[in-house]
Write a structure and sequence with these properties.
Elements (H helix, E strand, L loop, with lengths): L3 H12 L7 H18 L6 H15 L6 E3 L1 H10 L3 E4 L2 E6 L2 E7 L4 H5 L6 E5 L2 E2 L5 H11 L4 E6 L7 E5 L2 E4 L3 E8 L2 E6 L6 H12 L6 E5 L8 H9 L7 E6 L6 E4 L11 E5 L6 H11 L4 E4 L7 E7 L5 E10 L25 E2 L5 E2 L9 E2 L7 H8 L2 H13 L10 H13 L6 H24 L1 H11 L1 H9 L2
Parallel strand pairs: 11-12, 12-15, 15-16, 16-21
Antiparallel strand pairs: 1-18, 2-9, 3-4, 4-5, 5-6, 5-7, 7-8, 10-11, 13-14, 13-18, 17-18, 19-20
Helix pairs in contact: 1-2, 8-9, 11-13, 13-14
Protein backbone atom coordinates (compact mmCIF):
# COMPACT_ATOMS: atom_id res chain seq x y z
CA UNK A 1 0.00 0.00 0.00
CA UNK A 2 2.90 2.36 0.60
CA UNK A 3 3.53 2.47 -3.18
CA UNK A 4 0.09 2.07 -4.71
CA UNK A 5 -1.72 4.79 -2.76
CA UNK A 6 0.72 7.66 -3.43
CA UNK A 7 0.93 6.71 -7.13
CA UNK A 8 -2.87 6.78 -7.50
CA UNK A 9 -3.01 10.19 -5.84
CA UNK A 10 -0.22 11.46 -8.07
CA UNK A 11 -2.03 10.35 -11.25
CA UNK A 12 -5.20 12.12 -10.09
CA UNK A 13 -3.19 15.30 -9.61
CA UNK A 14 -1.61 14.86 -13.03
CA UNK A 15 -5.03 14.61 -14.71
CA UNK A 16 -6.32 17.78 -13.07
CA UNK A 17 -6.86 20.63 -15.57
CA UNK A 18 -4.12 23.20 -15.70
CA UNK A 19 -4.08 26.76 -16.97
CA UNK A 20 -1.16 28.04 -19.01
CA UNK A 21 0.85 29.35 -16.01
CA UNK A 22 0.53 25.90 -14.34
CA UNK A 23 2.32 23.95 -17.09
CA UNK A 24 5.62 23.84 -15.22
CA UNK A 25 3.87 22.69 -12.06
CA UNK A 26 2.09 19.86 -13.94
CA UNK A 27 5.36 18.81 -15.55
CA UNK A 28 6.97 18.63 -12.13
CA UNK A 29 4.09 16.39 -10.99
CA UNK A 30 4.65 14.18 -14.00
CA UNK A 31 8.35 13.95 -13.22
CA UNK A 32 7.59 12.92 -9.65
CA UNK A 33 5.13 10.25 -10.86
CA UNK A 34 7.68 8.88 -13.29
CA UNK A 35 10.38 8.84 -10.59
CA UNK A 36 8.08 6.89 -8.25
CA UNK A 37 7.21 4.38 -10.99
CA UNK A 38 10.84 3.92 -11.94
CA UNK A 39 11.83 3.45 -8.30
CA UNK A 40 9.01 1.20 -7.09
CA UNK A 41 7.67 -0.72 -10.13
CA UNK A 42 7.95 -4.52 -9.95
CA UNK A 43 9.43 -4.54 -13.47
CA UNK A 44 12.15 -2.28 -14.86
CA UNK A 45 10.85 0.81 -16.65
CA UNK A 46 11.93 1.48 -20.23
CA UNK A 47 11.97 5.30 -20.49
CA UNK A 48 11.46 5.27 -24.26
CA UNK A 49 8.32 3.14 -23.98
CA UNK A 50 7.01 5.04 -20.97
CA UNK A 51 7.37 8.45 -22.64
CA UNK A 52 7.16 7.81 -26.41
CA UNK A 53 4.54 5.04 -26.29
CA UNK A 54 2.69 6.11 -23.15
CA UNK A 55 2.70 9.69 -21.90
CA UNK A 56 2.97 11.55 -25.21
CA UNK A 57 0.43 9.42 -27.19
CA UNK A 58 -1.92 9.63 -24.18
CA UNK A 59 -1.78 13.43 -24.28
CA UNK A 60 -2.31 13.61 -28.04
CA UNK A 61 -5.21 11.11 -27.90
CA UNK A 62 -7.21 13.69 -25.94
CA UNK A 63 -6.94 16.10 -28.89
CA UNK A 64 -8.00 14.10 -31.96
CA UNK A 65 -7.21 10.79 -33.72
CA UNK A 66 -4.91 12.46 -36.25
CA UNK A 67 -2.40 14.15 -33.92
CA UNK A 68 0.33 11.57 -33.36
CA UNK A 69 3.89 11.27 -32.14
CA UNK A 70 6.26 9.40 -34.45
CA UNK A 71 9.33 7.54 -33.29
CA UNK A 72 12.44 7.37 -35.50
CA UNK A 73 11.16 4.53 -37.71
CA UNK A 74 7.70 6.01 -38.17
CA UNK A 75 9.12 9.44 -39.00
CA UNK A 76 11.35 7.93 -41.68
CA UNK A 77 8.33 6.10 -43.15
CA UNK A 78 6.45 9.40 -43.32
CA UNK A 79 9.30 10.97 -45.26
CA UNK A 80 9.18 8.07 -47.73
CA UNK A 81 5.40 8.37 -48.13
CA UNK A 82 5.82 12.02 -49.12
CA UNK A 83 7.66 10.86 -52.22
CA UNK A 84 5.85 9.58 -55.31
CA UNK A 85 8.12 6.56 -55.59
CA UNK A 86 7.92 3.25 -53.76
CA UNK A 87 9.75 -0.05 -53.80
CA UNK A 88 8.24 -2.74 -55.99
CA UNK A 89 8.65 -5.25 -58.81
CA UNK A 90 6.55 -3.60 -61.54
CA UNK A 91 3.65 -6.02 -61.59
CA UNK A 92 -0.10 -6.09 -61.02
CA UNK A 93 -1.46 -9.18 -59.30
CA UNK A 94 -4.82 -10.68 -58.38
CA UNK A 95 -4.95 -11.64 -54.70
CA UNK A 96 -7.50 -14.12 -53.33
CA UNK A 97 -7.18 -16.44 -50.31
CA UNK A 98 -4.27 -18.79 -50.96
CA UNK A 99 -3.53 -17.52 -54.48
CA UNK A 100 -1.60 -14.69 -56.14
CA UNK A 101 -1.81 -14.54 -59.95
CA UNK A 102 0.04 -12.10 -62.19
CA UNK A 103 -2.24 -9.95 -64.32
CA UNK A 104 0.39 -7.71 -65.84
CA UNK A 105 4.14 -7.04 -65.68
CA UNK A 106 5.69 -3.80 -66.90
CA UNK A 107 8.64 -3.81 -69.34
CA UNK A 108 11.99 -2.88 -67.85
CA UNK A 109 10.94 -3.68 -64.28
CA UNK A 110 12.27 -6.54 -62.11
CA UNK A 111 9.28 -8.77 -62.89
CA UNK A 112 9.32 -7.86 -66.59
CA UNK A 113 13.05 -8.54 -66.96
CA UNK A 114 12.65 -11.87 -65.17
CA UNK A 115 10.17 -13.02 -67.80
CA UNK A 116 7.12 -13.20 -65.54
CA UNK A 117 3.83 -12.63 -67.31
CA UNK A 118 0.03 -12.77 -67.08
CA UNK A 119 -1.25 -16.07 -65.78
CA UNK A 120 1.86 -16.96 -63.79
CA UNK A 121 0.86 -17.93 -60.24
CA UNK A 122 3.04 -17.44 -57.16
CA UNK A 123 3.01 -20.66 -55.17
CA UNK A 124 5.49 -19.65 -52.45
CA UNK A 125 7.40 -16.56 -51.31
CA UNK A 126 10.75 -17.22 -49.62
CA UNK A 127 9.62 -20.78 -49.02
CA UNK A 128 6.29 -19.77 -47.44
CA UNK A 129 3.41 -21.58 -49.18
CA UNK A 130 0.59 -19.23 -50.10
CA UNK A 131 -2.20 -21.82 -50.19
CA UNK A 132 -2.19 -21.90 -46.39
CA UNK A 133 -2.61 -18.12 -45.92
CA UNK A 134 -5.69 -15.98 -45.45
CA UNK A 135 -6.12 -12.80 -47.50
CA UNK A 136 -4.80 -10.48 -44.76
CA UNK A 137 -1.72 -12.67 -44.29
CA UNK A 138 -1.13 -12.70 -48.05
CA UNK A 139 -1.30 -8.92 -48.33
CA UNK A 140 1.06 -8.55 -45.38
CA UNK A 141 3.54 -11.01 -46.89
CA UNK A 142 3.43 -9.25 -50.26
CA UNK A 143 4.09 -5.93 -48.54
CA UNK A 144 7.11 -7.35 -46.72
CA UNK A 145 8.41 -8.90 -49.95
CA UNK A 146 8.67 -5.49 -51.62
CA UNK A 147 11.33 -4.35 -49.15
CA UNK A 148 14.19 -6.72 -49.99
CA UNK A 149 15.33 -9.43 -52.38
CA UNK A 150 12.75 -12.21 -52.62
CA UNK A 151 12.59 -15.77 -53.96
CA UNK A 152 9.41 -16.79 -55.77
CA UNK A 153 8.20 -20.28 -56.65
CA UNK A 154 5.95 -19.83 -59.68
CA UNK A 155 3.55 -22.17 -61.48
CA UNK A 156 3.25 -21.36 -65.19
CA UNK A 157 0.23 -22.55 -67.21
CA UNK A 158 1.15 -25.55 -69.33
CA UNK A 159 4.40 -26.15 -67.42
CA UNK A 160 4.49 -29.16 -65.09
CA UNK A 161 7.42 -28.04 -62.93
CA UNK A 162 7.65 -25.00 -60.68
CA UNK A 163 9.87 -22.14 -61.80
CA UNK A 164 12.05 -20.16 -59.40
CA UNK A 165 12.76 -16.44 -59.67
CA UNK A 166 14.87 -14.14 -57.51
CA UNK A 167 13.71 -10.52 -57.70
CA UNK A 168 15.19 -7.38 -56.16
CA UNK A 169 12.73 -4.50 -55.61
CA UNK A 170 13.44 -1.15 -57.23
CA UNK A 171 12.06 2.35 -56.85
CA UNK A 172 8.91 2.62 -58.96
CA UNK A 173 7.37 5.89 -60.06
CA UNK A 174 3.75 5.74 -58.96
CA UNK A 175 1.55 7.86 -61.27
CA UNK A 176 -1.42 9.44 -59.52
CA UNK A 177 -3.58 9.39 -62.68
CA UNK A 178 -3.87 5.67 -63.31
CA UNK A 179 -6.75 5.52 -65.84
CA UNK A 180 -7.81 7.78 -68.69
CA UNK A 181 -9.96 6.72 -71.66
CA UNK A 182 -13.21 7.54 -73.50
CA UNK A 183 -16.39 6.04 -72.05
CA UNK A 184 -18.16 6.93 -75.28
CA UNK A 185 -17.36 9.34 -78.13
CA UNK A 186 -16.59 12.75 -76.63
CA UNK A 187 -17.08 11.66 -73.00
CA UNK A 188 -13.86 11.08 -71.07
CA UNK A 189 -13.04 9.23 -67.90
CA UNK A 190 -10.07 10.10 -65.66
CA UNK A 191 -9.28 8.36 -62.37
CA UNK A 192 -6.96 10.00 -59.84
CA UNK A 193 -5.58 7.57 -57.24
CA UNK A 194 -3.79 10.18 -55.08
CA UNK A 195 -2.69 13.81 -55.03
CA UNK A 196 1.07 14.07 -55.48
CA UNK A 197 3.46 16.73 -56.72
CA UNK A 198 2.89 15.83 -60.40
CA UNK A 199 -0.90 15.24 -60.22
CA UNK A 200 -1.92 18.55 -61.81
CA UNK A 201 0.40 17.95 -64.75
CA UNK A 202 -0.80 14.35 -65.11
CA UNK A 203 -4.47 15.42 -65.13
CA UNK A 204 -3.78 18.02 -67.83
CA UNK A 205 -1.93 15.46 -69.94
CA UNK A 206 -4.71 12.89 -69.51
CA UNK A 207 -7.43 15.35 -70.53
CA UNK A 208 -5.34 16.53 -73.47
CA UNK A 209 -4.94 12.92 -74.64
CA UNK A 210 -8.71 12.46 -74.55
CA UNK A 211 -9.49 15.61 -76.52
CA UNK A 212 -8.92 18.58 -74.21
CA UNK A 213 -11.42 21.41 -74.63
CA UNK A 214 -13.19 19.46 -77.36
CA UNK A 215 -14.55 16.94 -74.84
CA UNK A 216 -18.32 17.00 -74.40
CA UNK A 217 -18.03 15.88 -70.78
CA UNK A 218 -15.77 14.23 -68.23
CA UNK A 219 -16.31 11.71 -65.42
CA UNK A 220 -13.65 12.53 -62.82
CA UNK A 221 -13.17 9.60 -60.47
CA UNK A 222 -11.89 10.37 -56.94
CA UNK A 223 -13.19 7.19 -55.31
CA UNK A 224 -10.76 5.46 -52.94
CA UNK A 225 -8.45 8.47 -53.22
CA UNK A 226 -7.07 9.14 -49.71
CA UNK A 227 -5.76 12.60 -50.60
CA UNK A 228 -2.22 13.89 -50.59
CA UNK A 229 -0.51 17.26 -50.85
CA UNK A 230 -2.60 20.44 -50.77
CA UNK A 231 -0.87 22.26 -53.69
CA UNK A 232 -1.87 19.39 -55.99
CA UNK A 233 -5.53 19.70 -54.93
CA UNK A 234 -5.45 23.48 -55.56
CA UNK A 235 -3.84 22.97 -58.96
CA UNK A 236 -6.39 20.35 -60.04
CA UNK A 237 -9.38 22.40 -58.83
CA UNK A 238 -8.00 25.41 -60.73
CA UNK A 239 -8.22 23.42 -63.97
CA UNK A 240 -12.01 23.54 -63.76
CA UNK A 241 -12.72 26.86 -61.96
CA UNK A 242 -12.45 30.47 -63.03
CA UNK A 243 -9.38 32.35 -61.74
CA UNK A 244 -10.13 33.96 -58.39
CA UNK A 245 -12.88 31.58 -57.32
CA UNK A 246 -12.43 30.32 -53.76
CA UNK A 247 -11.31 26.70 -53.43
CA UNK A 248 -11.14 26.48 -49.64
CA UNK A 249 -10.63 28.48 -46.47
CA UNK A 250 -8.45 27.58 -43.49
CA UNK A 251 -9.31 28.31 -39.87
CA UNK A 252 -7.44 27.41 -36.68
CA UNK A 253 -6.90 28.68 -33.15
CA UNK A 254 -3.24 29.60 -33.68
CA UNK A 255 -3.34 29.85 -37.48
CA UNK A 256 -4.27 33.02 -39.34
CA UNK A 257 -7.43 32.43 -41.37
CA UNK A 258 -6.84 32.47 -45.10
CA UNK A 259 -8.47 31.56 -48.41
CA UNK A 260 -7.02 29.63 -51.31
CA UNK A 261 -8.29 30.69 -54.74
CA UNK A 262 -8.12 29.26 -58.24
CA UNK A 263 -5.09 30.48 -60.13
CA UNK A 264 -4.92 31.54 -63.75
CA UNK A 265 -3.52 28.59 -65.71
CA UNK A 266 -4.77 29.59 -69.12
CA UNK A 267 -8.43 29.04 -69.84
CA UNK A 268 -10.09 26.63 -67.44
CA UNK A 269 -11.83 23.63 -68.99
CA UNK A 270 -15.49 24.41 -69.65
CA UNK A 271 -16.92 21.00 -70.54
CA UNK A 272 -19.55 19.45 -68.18
CA UNK A 273 -18.13 17.55 -65.24
CA UNK A 274 -19.30 14.75 -62.90
CA UNK A 275 -17.15 13.78 -59.91
CA UNK A 276 -17.27 10.35 -58.24
CA UNK A 277 -16.58 10.01 -54.50
CA UNK A 278 -17.08 7.32 -51.86
CA UNK A 279 -16.31 6.63 -48.21
CA UNK A 280 -12.59 6.30 -48.96
CA UNK A 281 -12.33 9.68 -50.69
CA UNK A 282 -10.59 11.94 -48.20
CA UNK A 283 -8.61 15.13 -47.64
CA UNK A 284 -7.43 16.58 -50.98
CA UNK A 285 -10.15 14.62 -52.81
CA UNK A 286 -12.79 16.28 -50.65
CA UNK A 287 -11.26 19.71 -51.18
CA UNK A 288 -11.56 19.34 -54.96
CA UNK A 289 -15.05 17.79 -54.87
CA UNK A 290 -16.35 20.37 -52.38
CA UNK A 291 -15.09 23.34 -54.39
CA UNK A 292 -16.52 22.03 -57.66
CA UNK A 293 -19.87 21.31 -55.96
CA UNK A 294 -20.16 24.69 -54.20
CA UNK A 295 -19.43 26.58 -57.43
CA UNK A 296 -21.94 24.40 -59.36
CA UNK A 297 -19.10 23.34 -61.61
CA UNK A 298 -19.79 19.61 -61.21
CA UNK A 299 -22.38 17.17 -59.98
CA UNK A 300 -21.08 14.88 -57.25
CA UNK A 301 -22.11 11.22 -57.59
CA UNK A 302 -21.56 8.18 -55.37
CA UNK A 303 -21.45 7.89 -51.58
CA UNK A 304 -20.61 10.39 -48.79
CA UNK A 305 -16.86 10.94 -48.51
CA UNK A 306 -14.70 10.16 -45.49
CA UNK A 307 -14.61 13.60 -43.83
CA UNK A 308 -10.92 14.41 -43.22
CA UNK A 309 -10.39 18.11 -43.66
CA UNK A 310 -7.69 19.22 -41.30
CA UNK A 311 -4.28 20.82 -41.49
CA UNK A 312 -1.63 18.48 -40.12
CA UNK A 313 1.58 20.31 -39.38
CA UNK A 314 4.57 17.99 -39.04
CA UNK A 315 7.28 19.10 -36.64
CA UNK A 316 10.74 17.56 -36.59
CA UNK A 317 11.85 16.86 -33.01
CA UNK A 318 15.09 15.72 -31.42
CA UNK A 319 16.58 12.26 -32.03
CA UNK A 320 14.94 12.13 -35.50
CA UNK A 321 11.42 11.84 -34.08
CA UNK A 322 8.42 13.85 -35.25
CA UNK A 323 5.04 15.22 -34.27
CA UNK A 324 2.02 15.47 -36.55
CA UNK A 325 -0.37 17.97 -34.97
CA UNK A 326 -3.77 19.21 -36.10
CA UNK A 327 -3.43 23.00 -36.29
CA UNK A 328 -6.41 24.07 -38.43
CA UNK A 329 -9.44 22.86 -40.43
CA UNK A 330 -10.49 23.13 -44.07
CA UNK A 331 -13.83 24.63 -45.16
CA UNK A 332 -15.47 24.58 -48.61
CA UNK A 333 -16.34 27.85 -50.38
CA UNK A 334 -19.87 27.79 -48.90
CA UNK A 335 -18.44 27.44 -45.37
CA UNK A 336 -18.95 23.70 -44.83
CA UNK A 337 -16.39 21.95 -42.66
CA UNK A 338 -14.83 19.04 -44.51
CA UNK A 339 -13.76 17.47 -41.22
CA UNK A 340 -16.42 15.23 -39.66
CA UNK A 341 -17.16 15.97 -35.99
CA UNK A 342 -14.73 14.61 -33.44
CA UNK A 343 -16.35 16.34 -30.45
CA UNK A 344 -18.94 19.08 -29.97
CA UNK A 345 -16.42 21.69 -28.89
CA UNK A 346 -14.31 21.33 -32.01
CA UNK A 347 -13.63 24.50 -33.96
CA UNK A 348 -14.50 22.78 -37.23
CA UNK A 349 -18.18 22.49 -36.23
CA UNK A 350 -18.69 25.31 -33.77
CA UNK A 351 -21.93 27.29 -34.38
CA UNK A 352 -22.74 25.20 -37.48
CA UNK A 353 -25.63 23.12 -36.09
CA UNK A 354 -28.69 23.43 -38.30
CA UNK A 355 -27.01 25.86 -40.69
CA UNK A 356 -28.03 25.76 -44.34
CA UNK A 357 -25.25 25.86 -46.94
CA UNK A 358 -25.87 26.88 -50.53
CA UNK A 359 -23.95 26.74 -53.78
CA UNK A 360 -23.38 29.74 -56.04
CA UNK A 361 -26.65 28.92 -57.82
CA UNK A 362 -28.58 28.64 -54.55
CA UNK A 363 -28.76 24.84 -54.35
CA UNK A 364 -28.73 23.61 -50.77
CA UNK A 365 -25.85 21.26 -49.92
CA UNK A 366 -25.45 19.26 -46.76
CA UNK A 367 -22.88 20.13 -44.08
CA UNK A 368 -21.69 18.16 -41.09
CA UNK A 369 -18.40 16.84 -42.43
CA UNK A 370 -17.41 15.13 -45.65
CA UNK A 371 -18.85 15.80 -49.09
CA UNK A 372 -22.40 14.55 -49.63
CA UNK A 373 -23.18 13.63 -53.25
CA UNK A 374 -25.86 15.35 -55.29
CA UNK A 375 -26.82 11.86 -56.44
CA UNK A 376 -26.29 9.04 -53.94
CA UNK A 377 -25.58 5.72 -55.68
CA UNK A 378 -24.45 2.49 -54.04
CA UNK A 379 -21.80 0.28 -55.64
CA UNK A 380 -22.70 -2.91 -57.44
CA UNK A 381 -24.36 -5.42 -55.09
CA UNK A 382 -22.52 -8.68 -54.39
CA UNK A 383 -24.66 -11.83 -54.58
CA UNK A 384 -23.66 -15.15 -53.06
CA UNK A 385 -22.65 -16.50 -56.48
CA UNK A 386 -20.55 -13.43 -57.27
CA UNK A 387 -18.73 -13.74 -53.96
CA UNK A 388 -17.93 -17.41 -54.62
CA UNK A 389 -16.69 -16.77 -58.16
CA UNK A 390 -14.47 -13.87 -57.09
CA UNK A 391 -13.18 -15.59 -53.96
CA UNK A 392 -12.19 -18.72 -55.88
CA UNK A 393 -10.39 -16.77 -58.64
CA UNK A 394 -12.50 -18.69 -61.15
CA UNK A 395 -12.54 -15.90 -63.75
CA UNK A 396 -8.77 -15.45 -63.66
CA UNK A 397 -8.02 -19.17 -63.77
CA UNK A 398 -10.38 -19.76 -66.69
CA UNK A 399 -9.05 -16.72 -68.56
CA UNK A 400 -5.46 -17.91 -68.19
CA UNK A 401 -6.34 -21.28 -69.74
CA UNK A 402 -8.46 -19.68 -72.47
CA UNK A 403 -5.68 -17.32 -73.63
CA UNK A 404 -3.09 -20.12 -73.48
CA UNK A 405 -5.21 -22.34 -75.74
CA UNK A 406 -6.70 -19.72 -78.08
CA UNK A 407 -4.15 -16.92 -78.14
CA UNK A 408 -4.87 -13.22 -77.69
CA UNK A 409 -8.38 -12.16 -78.74
CA UNK A 410 -9.16 -8.94 -80.59
CA UNK A 411 -10.02 -5.80 -78.61
CA UNK A 412 -13.69 -6.13 -79.64
CA UNK A 413 -13.85 -9.71 -78.33
CA UNK A 414 -17.24 -10.73 -76.89
CA UNK A 415 -18.18 -13.75 -74.78
CA UNK A 416 -20.46 -16.02 -76.79
CA UNK A 417 -23.18 -18.23 -75.37
CA UNK A 418 -21.03 -21.27 -76.14
CA UNK A 419 -18.09 -19.83 -74.16
CA UNK A 420 -20.43 -19.05 -71.28
CA UNK A 421 -21.58 -22.68 -71.30
CA UNK A 422 -17.96 -23.82 -71.35
CA UNK A 423 -17.28 -21.67 -68.30
CA UNK A 424 -20.26 -23.20 -66.50
CA UNK A 425 -18.85 -26.69 -67.15
CA UNK A 426 -15.45 -25.48 -65.90
CA UNK A 427 -17.10 -24.32 -62.66
CA UNK A 428 -18.96 -27.59 -62.24
CA UNK A 429 -15.70 -29.53 -62.49
CA UNK A 430 -14.50 -27.46 -59.53
CA UNK A 431 -17.61 -28.15 -57.48
CA UNK A 432 -19.18 -24.72 -58.12
CA UNK A 433 -22.72 -25.51 -59.25
CA UNK A 434 -25.08 -22.53 -58.95
CA UNK A 435 -28.82 -23.06 -59.26
CA UNK A 436 -30.61 -22.14 -62.49
CA UNK A 437 -32.05 -19.08 -60.75
CA UNK A 438 -28.67 -17.86 -59.49
CA UNK A 439 -27.07 -18.32 -62.90
CA UNK A 440 -29.94 -16.55 -64.64
CA UNK A 441 -29.83 -13.52 -62.33
CA UNK A 442 -26.06 -13.03 -62.68
CA UNK A 443 -25.65 -14.30 -66.25
CA UNK A 444 -24.93 -10.93 -67.88
CA UNK A 445 -22.62 -9.89 -65.04
CA UNK A 446 -20.74 -13.19 -65.46
CA UNK A 447 -20.49 -12.58 -69.21
CA UNK A 448 -19.03 -9.11 -68.58
CA UNK A 449 -16.58 -10.30 -65.89
CA UNK A 450 -15.41 -13.14 -68.10
CA UNK A 451 -14.77 -10.77 -70.99
CA UNK A 452 -12.98 -8.37 -68.62
CA UNK A 453 -10.66 -11.07 -67.30
CA UNK A 454 -9.83 -12.52 -70.73
CA UNK A 455 -9.07 -9.02 -72.06
CA UNK A 456 -6.94 -8.36 -68.95
CA UNK A 457 -4.87 -11.50 -69.52
CA UNK A 458 -4.48 -10.80 -73.22
CA UNK A 459 -4.23 -7.00 -73.50
CA UNK A 460 -3.42 -5.72 -70.01
CA UNK A 461 -5.10 -4.49 -66.84
CA UNK A 462 -6.00 -1.07 -68.25
CA UNK A 463 -8.08 -2.57 -71.07
CA UNK A 464 -9.78 -4.91 -68.62
CA UNK A 465 -10.56 -2.00 -66.32
CA UNK A 466 -12.35 -0.19 -69.14
CA UNK A 467 -14.89 -3.01 -69.23
CA UNK A 468 -15.29 -3.00 -65.45
CA UNK A 469 -15.69 0.76 -65.24
CA UNK A 470 -18.26 0.90 -68.04
CA UNK A 471 -20.34 -1.64 -66.08
CA UNK A 472 -20.12 0.34 -62.81
CA UNK A 473 -23.54 1.70 -61.67
CA UNK A 474 -21.93 4.82 -60.17
CA UNK A 475 -20.19 5.58 -63.45
CA UNK A 476 -23.47 5.06 -65.31
CA UNK A 477 -25.19 7.54 -62.99
CA UNK A 478 -22.34 10.01 -63.48
CA UNK A 479 -22.94 9.83 -67.23
CA UNK A 480 -26.62 10.60 -66.65
CA UNK A 481 -25.63 13.54 -64.44
CA UNK A 482 -23.71 15.21 -67.29
CA UNK A 483 -25.87 17.84 -69.03
Amino acid sequence: MTVTFPLAAAFLLLQAPASAPDVQQVLRRFASVYAAVERESADPVDPSRAIYEGAIPGMLRRLDPHSVFMDTGQFQQLKQLQQSTSKGFGSVVSVVPGRVIFLQTLPGTPSGRAGLGPGDEIVAINGIRLDRLEIEQLIGLLGEARREQVRLDVRRPGNARLLQFVLTPEDMQAPSVDRAFLLRPGIGYVRVASFDVETGKEVREAISKLGGDNLKGLVFDLRNNPGGVLPAALEVASLFLNPGQIILSVQGRAVAGKQEKATAQGLAYKFPLAVLVNGKSASASEIVAGALQDHDRARIVGEPSFGKGLVESVYSLSQDTGLALTTAFYFTPSGRSIQRPLDFGQLAHRDSAGKAYRTDAGREVRGGGGIHPDRVVSPEAVSRLRAVLEGSASFTSFAVEYVRKNGKPAADFEVSGALLDEFQVYLSQRSIRPSVGEWSVDREWIRSRLREEIITQALGVEKGDEISIARDPQVKEALRALP
